[in-house]
Amino acid sequence: MKRMLQFLVVMIPLAVLSQTNTEVYLFDLSAKKHKIKVSNGKNISNNEGYDNQPSFQYQNTILFASTRDGQTDVVSYTNGRKKWLSDTKQGSEYSPTQVPKSKYISAIRLDTTGAQHLYYYHKGKNKSLLKDLKIGYHVWHSRNILVSFVLGEPHKLVVSNLKKNTHKTVDTNIGRSLHKIPNSDLISYIKKKKDAWEIRSLNVKTGETKRIATTIPNVEDMCWLADGTILMGKGKALYHLNPTLNSGWKAMELENKGKGDWRIVKLFDEEQFDNITRIAVNKSNTKIAIVAEPEISLEPKLENIRWIAGNWKGKAFGGITEENWSEPSGDSMMATFKLIVDGKVIFYEIETISEVNNSLLLRLKHFNNELKGWETKDETVDFPLIRVTKNKAIFEGMTFESIDKNNMVVFVTMKQKNGDTSIVPFHYTKE
């Protein structure tokens, strides 16, 4: 029985992933002077089943794992062309990665027998490495130094020296995201503490680890930009953090808008995908690959967004926010909103969502604390519908996301004085 449990511990992480329908999306990336822009996206895997774990082999070549004929093989993608690099009938490959200063790529192979090892691959040939370690994920520090996530109870962070054939465990209870930190000799990894997950650095020579920042809650996938910025994704949002300016995510404290907080780079409201996981960028930071699940649209009916109804409270702009939505009736839902700071109302809103022309339309009007309107008498601020999904109502400039029956996030696009826009998440709890 004990051996069976150990076998399941090894098998479950990759077996579960292989059942997920995910796609790899490629976008143009601009990251200059701490301004990040993501644009011109396309689905480069476009394949039913598991397409995941992208890494850049070269500037315009991406490696990723992709399912075909009931198995998962390695694919390379370059400028619109895909090429299969493996076809292993006795197993499947995951986490393809270029080996530094070599002609090889490395990948985790999960055989039909249950064996799981790291392999070298080159021109259809392969060679097994580190047969004594059941590696789930890995990153190369250098040609002969490997840092890996080794499966077990608990999962371990192991540094292996291939020349000396040594393996040193430096931490436990870790996540799957392993990366070289730009402009340093360090590796980053995720430490899954009970209270909050951390991004930590590892010095492979000394084994010393240090805290860098707190992750976005329950998110373990990330990547680094060349300037030391970290990117993470959650839902339909891509976030960034400069850890040299701050050390944690303050989603509930929207009044603290320091550059060091996790802030939204882009909300993919137009793109039909959700649940972002893996992220990878090329060396020049001109391309970004994002893994996400294809999104299924629902009819634009109020019944499909009934979950918005309720009395919601949150914190924003140094105060307390209240947003109270009615149940659907008369082809509409209605809400009142107010912001209270230091015990005084700053402003109010009246909002409606109506069924109009086989779609939904969100309208609102603002009022100061004396109920004097910001807009003219007949003017409203309108947000046309983009899409309704199982847990989202996506309007142009405002997205409602249901986290669970008692928690909701509303993402609002706001214009800044300099003409730029920022996306502010309002986190609500139902009273």
- Strand line-up across the major sheet: 26-27-28-29-30-31-32-33-34-35
Q: Provide mean pLDDT, rounded.
A: 90
End-to-end gap: 47 Å
CATH architecture of the largest domain: 6 Propeller
Biggest beta sheet attributes = 10 strands, antiparallel, barrel
Q: Total domains, how many? A: 2
Tell me the CATH superfamily of the largest domain: TolB, C-terminal domain
Low-confidence stretches: 1-18, 247-260
What is the number of strand segments?
A: 35
In CATH, the topology of the largest domain is named: Neuraminidase
Give the DSSP E fraction (strand runs of 2 or more residues): over 45%
- CATH C-level label of the largest domain: Mainly Beta
What is the overall number of helices?
Answer: 1
* Secondary structural class: mainly beta
- In angstroms, what is the radius of gyration? 24 Å
The helicity comes to: under 10%
| Coarse morphology | elongated
Pfam families: DUF6265 (PF19780)
Protein name: DUF6265 domain-containing protein
Domain DUF6265: 307-412
Signal peptide: 1-18
